UniProtKB/TrEMBL annotation:
InterPro entries: Aminotrans_V_dom, Pser_aminoTfrase, PyrdxlP-dep_Trfase, PyrdxlP-dep_Trfase_major, PyrdxlP-dep_Trfase_small
Amino-acid biosynthesis among keywords: yes
Aminotransferase class V domain mapped to chain residues: 8-295
Listed cofactors: pyridoxal 5'-phosphate
GO biological process, one term: pyridoxine biosynthetic process
Species for this entry: Adhaeribacter rhizoryzae
Keyword annotations: Amino-acid biosynthesis, Aminotransferase, Cytoplasm, Pyridoxal phosphate, Pyridoxine biosynthesis, Serine biosynthesis, Transferase
Name of the protein in question: phosphoserine transaminase
Pathway: Amino-acid biosynthesis; L-serine biosynthesis; L-serine from 3-phospho-D-glycerate: step 2/3
Pfam families in the record: Aminotran_5
Enzyme Commission number: 2.6.1.52
EC class (word): transferase
């Protein structure tokens, strides 16, 4: 079976051996306050910095998921109000989660083919945090680096938080252009689900200390205090942290991976232009995602394509949210090989051209 599902997605094939290694090395039973854990954790933080180009002065935390980050950020970095710019289901869900914690959170919805109109935004003066989804997995759009920079410059007093769940470790991100970046590992990291990574700027930690919210096991100040010694507040997913170490050691630097992913996405968009019965959902190339490609067709055809693909041992991603029935999605994640994409293209050429 080949899977192009955009999360949980294909894991690196080496993960099979790494899991056996973790067992053999006894890593699965180490206490999370032990020197061995601290060593592992410190090593992984170093590898993430090196391989993903995360600035030296940014803090890295192990959490359990992107969803958890939605809560941590609202709890620990806002007193009242965040401002959410979204165009799809994940960005919208983030706002919904936050409203349970901070009911005054505000949302702004833009279209799938639109760039965020930074100049025309109407954030309230007391906005503490601006939230964006760099790569909207639900519809295959992404927010350009320059847009993030413009937001960061326009809202200097607010923190900028970026959901990069389906782009971190897949494309090169300019971490210094925002304050908080986070991802779950079951997307571009090519690892099994159950671990999240949160990256924070120095002023994020400053804000967390100022607010000093300590009401939750995952309050950011507590995460920060534990991480001073490369520890976590709760017993973390040690197996996944170990797998991340093994995978990150073997991985090319993000610049190289970014280059390959962007090139392959351009190739895929060109390829899918050959077809007329289904077309890319996102028509504006400026906002098309490099890591999640969404194709739109009639409900009937989309259903048939997915079933037919399964008969050919190919799993395509279902549509999501508003686009659940009339789109399907293809992950362009680093763990998926070029050969697998050849098979995918062959499937489409021989069945739908
Ligand atoms: C997958 C995804 C999430 C949720 O990840 P979990 O690991 O389920 O918390 C959040 N945001 C985006 C953009 C995603 O793609």
């Amino acid at each position: 079976m080949l899977t192009f599902y955009p999360g949980p997605s294909k894991v690196y094939p080496e993960v099979r051996d790494y899991m056996a290694m973790a067992y053999d090395e006894g890593i699965l039973s180490i206490p999370h306050r032990s020197d061995r854990f601290v060593q592992l954790s410190r090593n992984v933080v170093g590898l993430l910095r090196k391989k993903l180009n995360i600035p030296q002065d940014y803090y890295i935390f192990f959490v359990s998921s992107a969803t958890e980050c939605w809560e941590i950020i609202a709890q620990s970095l806002t007193r009242k109000k965040s401002y959410h710019l979204y165009n799809g289901a994940f960005g919208e869900k983030w706002l919904q989660y936050v409203r349970k914690i901070r009911p005054e959170a505000k949302g702004f919805k833009f279209g799938v083919n639109d760039e965020i109109p930074v100049k025309d935004l109407d954030a309230d003066a007391d906005t503490e945090l601006v939230c964006i989804t760099q790569n909207e997995t639900a519809n295959g759009t992404q927010i350009k680096e320059t847009t993030i920079l413009n937001l960061f410059n326009r809202y200097r007093d607010a923190l900028v938080a970026v959901d990069a769940t389906s782009s971190m470790a897949g494309i090169s991100l300019k971490y210094i252009k925002a304050d908080i970046w986070y991802a779950s590992v079951q997307k571009c990291f090519g690892l099994p689900a159950g671990l999240g990574i949160m990256v924070c700027s120095p002023r994020t930690i400053f804000r967390a200390k100022e607010i000093n919210e300590r009401g939750h096991y995952n309050s950011l100040v507590t995460l920060y205090e534990k991480m001073l010694n490369f520890q976590t507040t709760n017993t973390p997913n040690v197996l996944n942290i170990y797998l991340m170490q093994q995978v990150m050691e073997q991985r090319a630097p993000i610049k190289t991976i970014d280059h390959d992913i962007v090139k392959r996405s351009q190739d895929l968009y060109e390829f899918f232009d050959l077809f007329t019965a289904f077309t890319p959902l996102v028509t504006n190339p400026e906002v098309r995602s490099n890591t999640v490609i969404t194709l739109q067709g009639s409900e009937k055809l989309v259903d048939e394509i997915k079933r037919n693909a399964l008969r050919h041992e190919i799993i395509l991603g279902n549509g999501y949210g508003n686009w659940a029935k009339n789109t399907f999605r293809i992950a362009n994640f680093p763990a998926i090989s070029d050969d697998e994409f050849k098979i995918l293209k062959h499937f489409f050429l021989s069945n739908y051209e």
